[in-house]
C-alpha cells in the first residue's frame, strides 16, 4: 500500500506517540527510515517506540545501530544500559506512563501552556516526547523542567519561575507534560493539582479571560503586573 506524504511525517509519528499507539509509531518511523536509514534521531525514536511496546530485542537492535553510527550517543547508551538489566515481560509492566490528549484540556487559572527558555541540547531533548510527564525542580531563582531520569530539559521563564517558586514553597503541587519538542525548543503544559494553605484561594495562573487591565491612575506608576507575585491569603493562621 502506498502511503501519502501527509501520513508519513514526523508530526504523524509524534501524534501516534501522543496517543500511545506504539504500533503506529513503529510503522511510521520504519517508513521514514527507508528514505534516511542512518538518521540517528529517527532511529532513537524507533528504539523508544519498540521499548514502549515491550519489544526488547528490536529495541536493543535499533539502539545498537545508533551506537555504530555514533558511539557516544547518550540516548542510545542510556537505553541500552537499561535494556541490559530488564526482562521483556517486566518492561511491558514498567514502561513510562504516557498521557492521552485529553490531559491537555485547559482550565482557567489552573493550567498554562508555557514555552520554556534555555533549552538543553537536542541530544537531551530527543529523550522526551509529546505527552510525557516531566518534573518541575525549583533551583535558586529558576524552575527547571527535568525528565523522569532527572535530565535537564529547559527552564520556565523568569516571571513564571518567580511566581511558582513561591507557590511550591508553601505546598502547591503541579503536573507538567511535554506539549511539543523541537530543535532548541520545549513547550510544556502545566496543571495545578493542589494548593498549599497559605495561597489556598489564589489560582496559580492568571486567566486572560478574567484579566481586566488597570489604568495608570487606578494602580499607580509603581504597581507591578497582576501575575508578578502572589498575594498572601487574608486571615492566615
Outline the structure in words.
The chain is α+β, with helices and mostly antiparallel strands and about 240 residues long. The chain folds into 2 domains: about 80 residues, Alpha Horseshoe (Serine Threonine Protein Phosphatase 5, Tetratricopeptide repeat), CATH 1.25.40; about 120 residues, Alpha-Beta Plaits (2-Layer Sandwich), CATH 3.30.70. The protein contains 9 helices and 6 strands; from the N terminus they run H-H-H-H-H-H-E-H-E-E-E-H-E-E-H. Strands 1-6-5-2-3-4 form a 6-stranded antiparallel beta sheet. A hairpin with a 5-residue loop joins strand 3 and strand 4. The termini are far apart. The N terminus is likely disordered.
Main attributes of the structure:
Serine Threonine Protein Phosphatase 5, Tetratricopeptide repeat, disordered N terminus, 237 residues, 9 helices, alpha+beta, 2 domains, 17% strand, Alpha-Beta Plaits
Amino acid at each position: 500500500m502506498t502511503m501519502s506524504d501527509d501520513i508519513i511525517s514526523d508530526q504523524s509519528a509524534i501524534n501516534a506517540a501522543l496517543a500511545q499507539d506504539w504500533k503506529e509509531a513503529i510503522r511510521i518511523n520504519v517508513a521514514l527510515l527507508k528514505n534516511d536509514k542512518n538518521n540517528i534521531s529517527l532511529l532513537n525514536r524507533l528504539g523508544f517506540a519498540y521499548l514502549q511496546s515491550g519489544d526488547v530485542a528490536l529495541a536493543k537492535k535499533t539502539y545498537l545501530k545508533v551506537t555504530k553510527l555514533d558511539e557516544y550517543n547518550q540516548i542510545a547508551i542510556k537505553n541500552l544500559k537499561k535494556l541490559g538489566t530488564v526482562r521483556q515481560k517486566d518492561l511491558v509492566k514498567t514502561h513510562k506512563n504516557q498521557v492521552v490528549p485529553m490531559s491537555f484540556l485547559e482550565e482557567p487559572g489552573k493550567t498554562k501552556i508555557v514555552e520554556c527558555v534555555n533549552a538543553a541540547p537536542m541530544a537531551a531533548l530527543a529523550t522526551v516526547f509529546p505527552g510525557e510527564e516531566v518534573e518541575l525542580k525549583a533551583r535558586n531563582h529558576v524552575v527547571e523542567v527535568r525528565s523522569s531520569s532527572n535530565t535537564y530539559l529547559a527552564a520556565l521563564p523568569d516571571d513564571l519561575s518567580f511566581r511558582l517558586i513561591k507557590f511550591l514553597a508553601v505546598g502547591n503541587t503541579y503536573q507538567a507534560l511535554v506539549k511539543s519538542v523541537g530543535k532548541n525548543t520545549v513547550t510544556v503544559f502545566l496543571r495545578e493539582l493542589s494548593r498549599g494553605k497559605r495561597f489556598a484561594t489564589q489560582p496559580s495562573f492568571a486567566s486572560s479571560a478574567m484579566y481586566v487591565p488597570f489604568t495608570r491612575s487606578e494602580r499607580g506608576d509603581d504597581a507591578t503586573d497582576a501575575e508578578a507575585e502572589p498575594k498572601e491569603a487574608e486571615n492566615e493562621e
